[in-house]
Each structure stands twice: as C-alpha cells, then as structure tokens.
Automatic annotation (TrEMBL):
PANTHER family: ABC TRANSPORTER, ATP-BINDING PROTEIN (PTHR43335). It comes from Anaerocolumna jejuensis DSM 15929. One of its GO terms (molecular function) is ATP hydrolysis activity. It holds the Pfam family ABC_tran. This is ABC-2 type transport system ATP-binding protein. It comes from the Bacteria. Residues 4-232 form the ABC transporter domain. Belongs to the ABC transporter superfamily. Keywords: ATP-binding, Nucleotide-binding, Transport. Gene3D superfamilies: P-loop containing nucleotide triphosphate hydrolases. Signal peptide: none annotated.
C-alpha cells in the first residue's frame, strides 16, 4: 500500500516554476530517499505534503487521504523531523517527550511506555542530562523519538544527516533502518552514500522535475555498464594479458590501471565465461574478478549532469 502519493503536482513562486508534474509513491514500511541538489525543490515538496504550502495543481495523498492546504488533518499520520530541531534546553529527554505527549493528548500510560521504548530505539534511554548540552547527533536522535511519539504512518526527515560527522550519520541511519518496522520513511538528502545504505527506493529531483525514480536495486541494474574488473597477479605482465583480451570478439574496450584491467563488453553475464576461459587457457593469474556495479553517485551525475 502507498502511504504517500504525489500525482502531477505543480508549484510556482511568482513566475518561477519550482515543481513540475511531480509524481511518485512511497510504499508502506519502506525508506524513500528524496535526492536533489540545493534548490531542487525538496523542501517545497515536503511543505506541500505537510499542507503548509499550496500546490497550483495535482494531488497529494497521505494514507489515501487528500492533503489540503491549511487543513492539517492528514498530519495526524505524519511525524516530522526538521533539519535543525529546536528544544527547551532545560529539559532532559524524558521530560521533553512527556511534554510532547501531554500536548498531543496521549494518556499517561501511553506516554510512559512509548517514551521508554523510543528512548531505547534512539540510544538515549540512560541519558538524564539536559538537552542544551547535547551534540547535534543527540538532538537529531531525540528529534526522531519525538517524531515517532504519536506512532505516525509516515516519518518525514529533512536532511537528517547533513550536519553530522560520520559516526553521528551512521547512528541516525541505523535508527532510521530500525524505525522502518514501525513506520514509513521519506528523507531528503544530497548525501548519496547515505541513500545507498538504507533506501529501498529513491526519487531524484532536478529543477523541480523527477529525473529518476524507483527501486534502488532496479536503478543500479538499469544503469549498470557492462564492465568486468580484473586484478592480475603481480608477476604477470598486465599489458600482455590486456592485449590478449582485446583480441576477443566480444570485448569492446580495455582500460589498464596498475595491475587492474577493466574490460568493456556487450553483456557482462554472457561474456564472463569467455573471459574466464581465456584467462585459464593462457594461465593468467587473477586475484579479483568482478562485474562492476555503478555507484548511485555515478548514476546521479549521469541523470543530473
Ligand atoms: N517562499 C518562496 N518564495 C520564492 N521562492 C522560493 C520560496 N521557497 C523556495 N523558493 C525557491 O524555490 C526553489 C526550490 O527551493 P527548495 O527550498 O524547495 O529547494 P531544496 O531542494 O529544498 O534546496 P535546499 O537543499 O537548499 O533546501 C529555489 O529556487 C528557492 O529559491
């Protein structure tokens, strides 16, 4: 089931078209990476999903219910984590979550049990310090706990890892991966390695248009260039191996770098057997053989330019 659906959404600011015919869906219990350079239109889209901005045309649905501007009814299904969450610094995490629970009308019992469970999820269960001394990463973790307090069907995170160091980023990504069991996640980012680590599907926005979208595994497969990477044993002359490989009918091109040879072929799976047979026949020692996967970074550069 789609927890979030955008159908041909358009938005202009004055004469400037910011979002053009944007359509995508996010399936329940998946992580969707919303990718784009600065100014691509990610924040504008998230504000429309939250009903804070009005689209000019098109429809947005959250759990099947249409979002309408100014009426935040659909937000009962959404938890939102801003890029820089703000807190009352004099509270500790438990006090802060209790306050949030009380404001949103949760029962005392629900506040107690969910607070314990969520603080454990985000690794802040034993932390009794006041929030004002928290690192950025700890603030983001508390923000995730707060956003999940009302058990939303959709968690929207705006650049949750951008301001963090590698350790803090890993912690947030691990928490989001775990949170997938209890909700569906959309997170905006321009850090493609984060997307590769946890996203099931992606949408790449460029100048307000979706230039690439779908399942991460399918996208990798589609953009895979048929290149076989070989690492030749140190004692064997690489040029000799490369010259022989180049003679094979199904080999289009060869690149050499140190002991490494990249072989461009029509179809890596079909040609693989022929290459291996050649290496065996010529007694060429091979340390590594791989069909090369493109990184999302390469795919992104190809579609966004
Ligand atoms: N209220 C506004 N009035 C006029 N133009 C706006 C407004 N809000 C955003 N824009 C413009 O719309 C475009 C998209 O901005 P948006 O903030 O959605 O991009 P973004 O992908 O979130 O970028 P960033 O990563 O920098 O936040 C930009 O050109 C921006 O200058």
């Amino acid at each position: 089931m789609a927890v979030l659906e955008l159908d041909k959404v358009n938005k202009k600011f004055g004469d400037m078209k910011v979002i053009s015919d944007l359509s995508f869906q996010v399936t329940e219990h998946s992580v969707f990476g919303f990718i784009g350079k600065n100014g691509a239109g990610k924040t504008t889209t998230m504000k429309m999903i939250l009903g804070f901005l009005q689209q000019d045309s098109g429809a947005i649905r959250v759990c099947g219910e249409k979002v309408s501007y100014g009426n935040t009814k659909t937000n009962r299904n959404i938890g939102y984590l801003p890029d820089v969450p703000e807190y009352y610094g004099y509270m500790n995490p438990r006090e802060y979550l209790r306050l949030c629970g009380e404001i949103t009308g949760l029962s005392k019992e629900a506040i107690r049990s969910r607070t314990g469970e969520l603080l454990e999820l985000v690794g802040l269960e034993g932390v009794n310090r006041k929030v004002h001394g928290f690192s950025r990463g700890m603030k983001q973790r508390l923000g995730i706990a707060q956003a999940l307090l009302n058990e939303p069907k959709l968690l929207i995170c705006d650049e949750p890892t951008s301001a963090l160091d590698p350790v803090g980023r890993k912690e947030i990504l691990d928490i989001l991966s775990l949170a997938k069991d209890r909700t569906t996640i959309l997170f905006s980012t321009h850090i493609l390695s984060d997307v590769e680590r946890i996203c099931d599907s992606i949408g790449v926005l460029n100048q307000g248009k979706l230039v690439l979208g779908g399942n991460v595994a399918d996208i990798r497969h589609k953009y895979r260039k048929d290149i076989i990477g070989l690492e030749i044993g140190g004692q064997y002359p690489v040029e000799k191996a490369a010259a022989g490989l180049k003679e094979l009918a199904f080999v289009n091109n060869i690149h050499i770098s140190g002991q490494r040879i990249e072989v461009e072929v029509h179809n890596a799976e079909d040609s693989g057997a022929g290459i291996l047979a050649f290496l065996l026949k010529e007694n060429i020692p091979v340390i590594r053989y791989e069909i090369m996967e493109p990184s999302l970074e390469n795919v992104f550069l190809e579609v966004v330019g």
